[in-house]
Amino acid sequence: MAKIEHWGIAALLLVATVNNASAQEQEHNLPATAAQTYVQAWLGTMEADNARSLDDPSTGVRLEADYSSIPLGGGVSQRLWGASVQIGFEGGGLVSFKNDAVIFAGADPGLRVSIDNEFFLTELFMGGVVSLRPSHWLRLYAAAGPSIAWGLLHGEDEDDNGESGVVVIGPGSLLVIDLDETHSDFSFGFYGRIGIDFELESGLTFGISARYVEHEMNFDERGKFTLDDMHWFVTLGGRI
Prior knowledge:
By secondary structure, the protein is mainly beta. It has a single domain, classed as Beta Barrel (Porin). It has one helix and 14 strands; from the N terminus they run αββββββββββββββ. The strands form two sheets. An eight-stranded antiparallel β-barrel has the order 1-4-5-6-7-10-11-14. The radius of gyration is 22 Å and the shape is elongated. The two termini are about 40 Å apart.
């Protein structure tokens, strides 16, 4: 609910700013500009607390793993029309890769195991954009639209004897994971993004952006990966 409230407040502030900018544009009879294209390169991170979970189908016991944070990189291109208030669309993509050991833990303190694996994510998206220009050096924008993500999870068997390739979690045989298997999955969702750009006379831009999207990928016996936390980016780009 807190996330919904935050986005609701942001939307109300955006609407108020749009109305104010439109009134100023009409008052000063600002001419509509030709279509403008902005490009951005992104570098950021996403929190992934308890992002991955494993369920034992026989007992219903769930184990969760904390990935801490996942690095993100990517970019976007925006095509906009207007003057003080600009409307258009954007499209882009992002990628993420993390090779690290994660610790799965359950309610029982004895249910713990560390697994090394590689996680790769790529996402493509396209959405509508509303951009506001309070001044020639400042740009505020919001965007939303559909998104498709593809994730891949690959385990690494680090058994010195090279014999097993299998991890058994918990007493007895609660859950068996084949570390040598690779699994992938697609996920569809919708994203929302807000940001602020500072623009130099040369057209170079830099700023920050916050983005939210939900994706869930099922890697079979390797568990589920749920990404539903905010993305934070620093952006660098320009107007072309």
